[in-house]
């Protein structure tokens, strides 16, 4: 079948029935991933599938079976596929893509990081700094939403995003920043100063009270 999810399930079924050894099952899954990288445009659904298939990192040892040119490896989708199979270079490329101006690249990074989140503080800081430099857009909001799921506990990264709030001219970006802060260890931030900054710098919310108001109330709570 040329339908990748069905092909993956058939391979896994063959393994469950004993028609394929564990080694052969891994090899077949790696061959399937290689075929996708060679013959079709790789999208977010593919990245979600590849990372799901390798949630136990068993396919890391099969990465050598993938033949990907240096040019293709620079494409974010291909890099994410390699990252799903444990490639450090692929992961580095995807982390950079999270702060891209291209929303498609940010979407791919979002899906990849949903499976393999950022754990190194230095990487968190680089990403936070990169997001702060992005042009206000849907891509920046998506990048902030992705970072929010990491529940930050690094003061430097939180300060970087807090500095972005008053200079932002987009209520969506401000809300996304508030979402990052409210899901973080915001006790690290200077509460009175943050409440004052948020209250004075916030843009008017078309729908009335929103997550910015919730953040302000939480910061005011002893």
What is the topological layout?
Elements: H1 4-16, H2 22-39, H3 44-53, H4 70-73, H5 76-84, H6 88-97, H7 103-115, H8 121-133, H9 138-148, H10 155-167, H11 171-182, H12 191-201, H13 211-220
- Straight-line distance between termini: 60 Å
Low-confidence stretches: none
* Category from helices, strands and their pairing: mainly alpha
Order of helices and strands: HHHHHHHHHHHHH
Query: Rg, please?
Result: 21 Å
Question: What is the helix tally?
Answer: 13
Total strands: 0
pLDDT average, as an integer? 94
Dominant shape: elongated
| Biggest pleated sheet | none
Helix content, binned percent: 55-70%
Tell me the β content. under 5%
Structure description:
This protein is mainly α and 222 residues long. Helix content is 66%, strand content 0%. The chain is built from 13 helices and no strands. It has helices spanning 4-16, 22-39, 44-53, 70-73, 76-84, 88-97, 103-115, 121-133, 138-148, 155-167, 171-182, 191-201, 211-220. α3 runs parallel beside α5, α5 (76-84) packs parallel to α7 and α8 runs antiparallel to α9 (138-148). The longest helix is centred in the N-terminal third of the chain and has 18 residues, at 22-39. The protein is elongated and about 65 Å long. The protein starts with a helix and ends with a helix. The model has no long low-confidence stretch (mean pLDDT 94).
